[in-house]
Amino acid sequence: MSTLSFWLTSGIFQLCLVLTLSIGLGFLSTRTLKHSLERAFFGLTALVSLWNLVSVVEQLPMQDSDKLFLFRLSSPLWIFTGFFLFEFFRHLSSMPRTWFSSFLLTLSILISLLSIFTPLVERQVVCGTYGYYATSGPFQVPILVSLVVIPFLLGLWLIKKRLPLASPEEQRPLRIVLWTSPIIFLMPTIHSGILPLMGITDLTKVGTTGFSIMVAIYYFVALARGDDSLTVSQAAGSLFQELKDGVLLLDLNGRIEQANPAALRLIGQPWIKIEGQPIEKHLPQFRLSQWYQDYPFQIEKEGKSSCFNLTSVMQKNKGIPYGKLLILRDTSEFINLQQELSLRPEQPGHQALEQTLALKEAQEHIRARAQQLQSLLDNLPFQIFVKDNQGRYILQNQLDRERRGNLLGHELENADLSPERIAEALKADAKVLQGGTYESEFETEEQGRMIRLRSIKKPILNDEGQIKGILGILIDITDVHRLEQERMEFKERLLRSHKMEAIGTLAGGIAHDFNNILGSLTGYCELATETIPEDSPAQKYLREVLVAAERGRQLVQQILTFSRQEEKERKSVAVFFTVRETLNLLQGSTPANIQIKLEAPQQESFILGDPVELHRIIMNLCTNAVHAMKEKGGELTVFCEDMVTNQPSMVRNIQLPAGHWVCVEIRDTGHGIPEEKISRIFDPFFTTKKTSEGTGLGLSVVLGILQAWNAHVSVSSVKDQGTCFRIFLPALVRRQRTNDSDPGNELSILLQTQDPVIISQLKAAVGDQSVNWMHLRQVDDIPRLWRASPWKLGVLSQNELDLPYELLIQQWRAQGLVSPFIIFSSAQPNDQDLLDRVVVLPLDATVAQISTAMKKFLWQMS
Amino acid sequence: MANVLIIDDDNQMRSLLHEAFLLAGIETETAADGSEAERILATHPFKVVITDIVMPDVDGFEVIFLLRQKYPNIAVIAMSGGGRLNATNYLDSARSFGAVAVFQKPLNRKALIAKVQEILGN
Q1: Which of A768, A769, A849, A851 to probe by mutation at the B interface, max B CB count within 10 Å?
Q2: What is the average pLDDT value for chain A, to the nearest integer?
Q3: Domains annotated on chain A, with CATH
């Protein structure tokens, strides 16, 4: 064997080794082997590389027995080619793994073992013309055929099967493999399989070379497809659309193949107009032959000009140019800025200019956004502000500025607030800066009225979650709150009126029967008093029974009044006079340890109402006051005043509308009403007194009357210090009163006597006529009352007068008191002048006599 | 023979009035309701009828109406303790029905007797 041929053979193997090794390593470095096809190809390449390496080593000088062992050891390398080829073809044709692969693998392993340890495959090493080779054992050819040729052919068949199903771009590599593989394979087949049959056995190692070439061809041609081309093209597609720069794809003749929206905008044409057109038509200055790098272009179209910088890029595929890519960068803004800046004396450097432009653009962007934000904030219907970590105001919306002034840059202490509010706000800020949320409602005064605000404070976080400031929101909930309160009030009122209705129904039901019962009681009692002797001790017991019956009657009246809210006819009532009267009556029944004081203006004030009801109101309130003080004694002060308010005002805790009011304040120094009970004092049957002392109806009756009169009442009480009731009665504007009485059929009779017998007889005499009984005790008040409210007839009883009636009447006549009088006295008048206006009746006068006397005067008067 | 008829559904009230009038020297007869009253009125002539308004069965209004029709010469006095409505409402109606006088309960006994005496005296 010649050294040249030897080295030639070895050299070829070395070259093949270099080729396949570099392919393998190159493949490994560019692909990540994620895909199974890549793995299959790499496996094949690695196998062939190894085979080449072994072939080189086999040609090295060494002992024959070692060489034989090496040849035998390397036999699995060619045995497994079948398997690896098959796997490669299988992956190429995207076929799933079947039993065949595993079977082939197993068989290959077994045969490899056979080949290594037995002479059945590689018999012995022979030094041929072109290097060492191993002679084939009896099994070699069958093994070759079954483990290499057949899988190879099967793999090709798989590819052929796949071909019609493959997409066009996949078909290309498949077709290449399908056609080139048999041709490439032919060479090793001939050299290793056919030639030995003809006797030429020394070219059997050519197999490796053939395989190396095959690997190379597969690498360069078939695997150029790239597995992630799909995603790249997808990304490229959307980039193409969204790019701000225009992109135009031209073919080699300058016709427009593709254009993105930005390009269409810059050129100013729709796609249908430019598709397939030569570019010069739409870009007149463009020359296909020229190379452009940021070359400025300007297009004038219908008054609109667009200018851009054009860069052309050659599009090559595998080194073969197939078109041009044009990148159009919009420069219209840039031009404007350039023109702007060219007016400045110093020309900044190009780089500085670019930076300034970029900065300007950024600033513009930020300004626009800030303006948008501020506009949004200013239009919100509540106050918003932002403070930094130090509590300085850094943002305010318009409403907040209006309401609280411009606080930007200032801290809370500078805000115009009360110290308590500031302290509260600082506490809130501290809490928020710790990460908490603060919510509260409070009332404050603003432009003269009270408003209610809800304050919400939250921390502001930056991207990393650190607290960078405080966001504050103030919402005006005055209206909402007021409506809510009104709603509650209405609910309460509704509830109360339901209660009243229920009680009313009940009351009405029993009133009738009760009146009958009382009637019988009173009647029989009266009969009894008339039947038994005058001096009988039983008389006074019977009188007590009558008193009790009268109380019962009054109680029924109270209930009925309260439940029906009777609309009594209203007339003008002298308030202070009535108050005085009531207090006089009260004085008699109050214990000595209670002082009663009255303060009232000289001039009388009038209201539209019923004197009896006013009397009842005052009496009720005063009785309560006395009761509160009965243990320790105290002072009951009644203070009256006439007041005119021009605007609605808050008095104590009630809203008093504007107007002319008569105010009566009843204040005591008793035990007071506990706060939790104050809201209930007007409820019917609510009482803190023992059952024998009170029914709890008094105040509800009072309230009922006051409501009917559109009056207002406020209560304030301090425990153990006293209670104060203030009632505001709508004043009646005084008409000019003449001394003549009101010409109406209203019969008003002054009653100074307290004698029940006389009174009942008078009432009997009056019969069913409606009479306004004016009860009076203090004789001194008579002239004043006459001036205020004249009556048609006065009734006096000498027993209760300090002075003789003649004297009094004379005095009164002198003062202009001209009403007629019925006097119950045992003495006849001396002064005959009085006779026509005065009738004196004995104390035991009959009803008939009284009636006659009354008729006389009343007939005279009318 | 009694000239006065008292109609009231309340036992005690009837006997009370009877007693009261007796003390005053006037004889009366009583009826518990309108139908009984009708019967009694048929027996002999009466001069005055005092009737309560709110009564079960035949109520006072009906009585007054009846009396106005059948016995126009009888003077009718109505009385009422009230009920669902204010007594005055009832009494005003009674007056418009034809009662010559109306009295509220609890009664002013003396006034009632005086009125009756007045009517009888004329």
Answers
A1: A768
A2: 80
A3: 3-225 (1.20.1070.10), 229-342 (3.30.450.20), 382-476 (3.30.450.20), 486-546 (no CATH), 567-730 (3.30.565.10), 747-861 (3.40.50.2300)
